[in-house]
Amino acid sequence: MAAELLIWNKNLCVNEFMHSKQKKSNPQGKGVVPVVNHWYTYEPVVVEKKSTGQLFAEYFTSLLILSADFRFKPVQGANYFLYLKKQCWVLSLIEPERWSYERRGEYFGSCQLQEDMTWSIDTIDLESVHPDVDQALKLFYQQIALHLDSEKPLIEILPFYLDELPYYRRMAATGLARSMRHSFGEHALLDKPSKNVLSALQLSNHNSEFLGIS
Predict the structure, then answer these.
(1) Domain range spanning residue 164?
(2) Region of 170 on the Ramachandran plot (φ > 0 left; ψ -120 to 50 alpha; else beta)
(3) Residue at 25 is within a domain
(4) What global pTM score does this model have?
(5) With 0-12 CB in 10 A as exposed, 13-18 as middle and 19+ as buried, what is 212?
(6) Does the residue 86 lie in any domain?
(7) Fewer CB within 10 Å, N or C, the chain?
(8) Which residues have C-beta within 8 Å of that of residue 77, sequence separation ≥ 6?
């Protein structure tokens, strides 16, 4: 059965929503026991019911971070650092002051993985953001808005299985999808047309609001 996917296009360094069949292969040669353990590690902790506006803001912010290239195991509560280098988002363990601009690219903010498997980001002053970063955010905004402007039920729009991603990004993204389905389900939104849910939020065209960034 086909599933709605968010996969990383390595050539364009942008997010693309595509369809693919779920694979049964073991990612990156890891044994069954470690995979099962990591599955439970990324089981979202149920938190208090959130507003739909907060849910979408966390969803968009989380997708932005998970679109970044990283191959380490993210843990809840640790600080990670988001950069834009050569038009590609990169999530790093290294603070911006610890390496050169030439190596890291433009710094955007500090990120944390929350217990419910959503991500938060503490950004730099948006008024001083580099034009390349601003353009990349606008592109991300447009892609997400276009994807959600659909008559399909929201449950078919939310990504669940992510193909062709490094192992830990796949685990974190799957945890996010499980969290989002639970949270949106609390509002009985999963079976409603995605575009109706989106329009009800009455968001402006400002990408920072759409991403939950103030």
Answers:
(1) 30-210
(2) alpha
(3) no
(4) 0.76
(5) buried
(6) yes
(7) N
(8) 112, 113
**Strand runs labelled E in the chain:** 2-9, 14-21, 80-85, 88-92, 106-113, 119-123
The string of DSSP letters for 120-145 reads: EEEE--GGG--HHHHHHHHHHHHHHH
More confident residue, 57 or 29: 57
Residue 178 has pLDDT above 50, yes or no: yes
Burial of 8 (0-12, 13-18, 19+ CB in 10 A): buried
Residue 148 near residue 159, CB atoms below 8 Å: no
Q: Which two tokens stand for residue 125?
A: 């002053």
Distance CA 59, CA 210 (A): 10
Tokens for 14? 């942008």
Decide which of 65 and 204 is more confident: 65
Whose CA is closest to 20, among 44, 3, 32, 34?
3
Read off the tokens for 108: 């955007």
What digits encode the pLDDT tens for the residues 27-55? 455 554 455 455 445 567 767 788 888 88
Could you report the per-residue pLDDT of 112-123, keeping only the tens digit for each?
Answer: 999 999 999 998
Is the separation of the CB atoms in 38 and 72 below 8 Å? Answer: no
Indicate whether 162 belongs to any domain. yes
Q: How many domains does the chain have?
A: 1
Tokens for 117, please give them: 């498997």
Contact criterion met (CB below 8 Å) for 169 and 162: yes
Contacts of 101 (CB under 8 A, 6+ apart): none
Structure tokens at 136: 């990349």
